Amino acid sequence: MTDNLIPRTESAYDYPLLIKNLFAAPAVSNPRQTIVYRDLQRFTYAEFKQRVCRLANALTAIGVKPGDTVAVMDWDSHRYLECFYAIPMLGAVLHTVNIRLSPEQILYTIDHAEDDYILVNEEFLPLLEQIKGRIDTVKAYILLQDEQQQLETSLPIAGEYEALLSQAATTFEFADFNENTRATTFYTTGTTGMPKGVYFSHRQLVLHTIAGMAALGSVARQGRLHQEDVYMPITPMFHVHAWGVPYIATALGIKQVYPGKYLPEMLLKLIDSEKVTFSHCVPTILHLLMSHPLFKEIDLSNWKVLIGGAALPKAMCRAARARGIDIYSGYGMSETCPVLTLANITEEALSADEDEEFRCKTGRPIPLVDLRIVDEQMQEVPADGHSVGEIVVRAPWLTQGYLKDQRNSETLWRGGYLHSGDVANRDPHNYIKITDRIKDVIKIGGEWISSLEVEDFLAAHPEVTEAAVIGLPDPKWGEKPLALVVRKGSAEISEKELLNYIRGFVDKGMISKQIVLLKIAFVDSIEKTSVGKTNKKLLREKYQQQ
C-alpha cells in the first residue's frame, strides 16, 4: 500500500542525516564553551567551528575532493576532533588509522582503504618512512605537530597542519549529499588474520549519536551525560570513533578535554585540573590509572567512567566505587559503531553487592537496538539469567559488512542479524551479561565454562592484580583451563593457595566443579591487543604445548 505515503512538497527541504547537521547547533548555542588539548591548547566552540572550516578549505586546496579517503595518524587531540567533522563533511572518507598495529598491518590498511592523503603526527614519521616505498595510493601528507619545527623527511609533505589552517578562510559552505555516503572507515584489531575494514555512513553516525544522547542523557541519576559535564575520552579516537562519544559531546556543546598520548600522570592531572566528569575506557587503562600514586591523591567523586571493550571486573568496580567513581559497563563492537547496551541502574534500594553486580553486567539495549540471545537454530533462549546463547543484533547504525570482503560480510550477517560472537544470558530485568566469547569458552568434557567468570574470581583475590584464562587442547577432556596470573607487587601467593581459593567458589555452587582441572602459571604481564584487550588468540598459541 502507498496511500499513506507523505506527499512531497517541491519546495520543502528534504533534511539529510549528515554529520554537518550535528556540527551546526553547539557552535551557535554554546560558542564560549571550550575544547582543551592537554596543557597546550584551549579553544572556544566558536573558534572550533572556524578551525573546522579552515581545515576544509586547506584540504580542498591540496586536492581533497568528495569520494577521496583521508587517513589520520594522531594521538587523541583537538586536531582529531576537527578531522571527525571536516573530512566527512567534504564528502570524503575519514580513515582512522590504528597506530598500535604493526608496520605491516598499517601498510595493509592504508593500501586496502586506498588512502589518498594522510595527516600524520610527527611521532609516526619514522614508521611511514619504513614502509613508504610500498605505499601505492597516497598523494601527499600533512604534518601534525604540537610545536612547529623543521623536520627532515623524504615524504611528500603538503604542509604543516597549523600553518595550513592559518592561511585558510574561516568559512566554508558544506554541500548536501546523500546521507548514505560513507563517512568513516577503520580496521579491526586483526587477532584472526589481517585487520578487517568496517565502515559507516553519515546516516548511521547521526542515528548512533542521537540514540547515544537519549540513552546517556535519560537516566535520572547514575552515569548520566549532560550539558554541564566535562568530557575526556580515554579510548583512542582511532578505535570506533572513540565509541562515538566525541560526536555526542560536540552535539551537546559540552566542554571537552583531549589528552594526547595516554600517559597516566597526564590523564590524572587533566581529570583534576579540568574537573573532568565523564570518561570511557577499557579496564586495562583504568588499571594503569589506579596503580599510579596520583590516583589516591585527587578528588574523583564527580567522575563517571563507562567501561567497555572487556568485562568490568568486580574487584575493579569495588575499588573504583570506594573512591567515589560512578563506574559502569557498556557493550558494543567495532562492527556496531559501537554502543549497543549500557548498564545504567534504575532499580531502587540496592545493597552494595547488588549495585556492584548490576554495574558489572553488560547492560540493557539502548533505543533502536533489537538485541536477541539465540541458540544455534536462531531461537531465543529464556530470559532467566542462566540460559546462554549468542548475541545477535539489528540497529540502524551497524556496519553493512567488511570492506571488499563479501564472504566475511555474509558470515557476519547470516540469518539477517549481525552475529557478535559473544555468549551471554539475559535476566528478567532485561540486563544482558556476557559470559564469554564463543571462541574463548572452555569446553571441558562437554560442559562450557566461562573464562570471564574464572578471571573475575581470580582478579578479586587481594594478591592478584590481573588474570587471563584460556582453554588448551586435552585428549581426554577436550580442553583444560590454564590461568595466567599476575601477582600484586611483592605478593608470593602459590598455585596451591589460588586453587584452594577457586575451590571455594565450586563449594558455593558458583562455578562448575570441572574447574578443578585448572592449572595456574604466574607471569609478569599478559599480552594485549592494540586496543588494550587480552589477546587470547596469542596466549593460546604461546601456551599450546603446556
Explain this structure:
The radius of gyration is 24 Å and the shape is globular. Helix 1 runs antiparallel to helix 2, helix 2 packs across helix 3 (78-89) and helix 7 packs across helix 9 (245-252). The chain has 546 residues and is α/β, with parallel strands linked by helices. It starts with 18 loop residues before the first helix and ends with a helix. Among the domains are: 19-199, Rossmann fold (3-Layer(aba) Sandwich); 442-542, GMP Synthetase, Chain A, domain 3 (2-Layer Sandwich), CATH 3.30.300.
Query: Termini separation (Å)?
Result: 65 Å
Read across the widest sheet, the strand sequence of neighbours is 7-6-5-3-4-8-9
Structural class: alpha/beta
- Helix amount: 25-40%
Q: CATH H level of the domain at 19-199: which superfamily?
A: ANL, N-terminal domain
Which word captures the global form?
globular
- Work out the radius of gyration: 24 Å
Low-confidence stretches: none
Task: Estimate what percentage of residues fall within beta strands.
Answer: 15-25%
Tally of extended strands? 25
The largest β sheet comes out as: 7 strands, mixed
Give the count of helical stretches: 17
Write down the overall mean pLDDT. Answer: 92
CATH topology of the domain at 19-199, by name, is Rossmann fold
Question: What is the annotated CATH architecture of the domain at 19-199?
Answer: 3-Layer(aba) Sandwich
Assigned CATH class of the domain at 19-199: Alpha Beta
